[in-house]
Amino acid sequence: MDRVHLVECPRDALQGWPHKVSTEDKVAYYRALLDVGFDTIDVGSFVSTKAVPSMANTAKVLTTIEDEGMLPKQGTRILVIVANERGATEASKFETIDDIGFPLSLSETFQKRNTGASIEEAFSRLDNIQNICVNNSKRLVVYLSMGFGNPYGEVWHPDMLTKFSDRLRRDLNVEVIALSDTVGTALENVVEDAFSAVITELPDIEFGAHLHLHATAGLSKIEAALRGGCLRFDGAIRGIGGCPLAQDALVGNAPTERMVELFVNRGLWTVGNERAWDQSQNLASEIFSEI
Predict the structure, then answer these.
(1) pLDDT digits (tens, 9 = 90+) for 134-161
(2) Under a CB-based contact definition with an 8 Å cutoff, are residues 137 and 131 in contact?
(3) What is the CATH number of the domain that holds 182?
């Protein structure tokens, strides 16, 4: 049976959290996460600190990780998010980073809100960012934001996912694309059909699911993506997170602990270090306390 590629996203959890999280607390949290055995950990972003102030210490966190020799477990990739060439250049300086992610939206409105660029300008940035990645032995990961609908009244159609993905593969040689339900409005049948379509049309791309779920929701959208053939999933412990630039009310990430239970029970994933996994969940409870 195929194995799921599980991406833990503390960056997405932290970026919208109302309370400041210190560099020391982030490093302690990441130290535990690095020992769990996640396939990828999304640790931070090199973006405007004015837009996302909680990510201002990403470079310091990564420097500490490297200086302290906190190397990831074998097979664990480290990912960061950027919005332009400047961010990609900064990220490329860190040996610990394997993947550089960029949010490309199917919505013109959200692309401008999120990166200050039009969709076509974003494609141009991606071309430059891909060159930076290639020259620095990094891999480009593209997140297709607003992948399952458009809350701004713009045209949206599921065929746009295939069209954008095909262009990314053909023109920019992108190998990993995550379809993103940025505001948590995707319908299960849309999720399943979308993954089935893009995986069938573009089998040489690794497609992932970055699904935001309401706190009271189950994992039906995760299971829909599985039925559609998706084997790469993003989540955050306790389901914390959401995009602060999409809308005022944040919709959390898929809760990692519930996905781990689902995937382990189905023989799709294995926790590498149970003690580190328990410690990570305890630290998440402390960091994301409402007090």
Answers:
(1) 999 999 999 999 999 888 889 999 999 9
(2) no
(3) 3.20.20.70
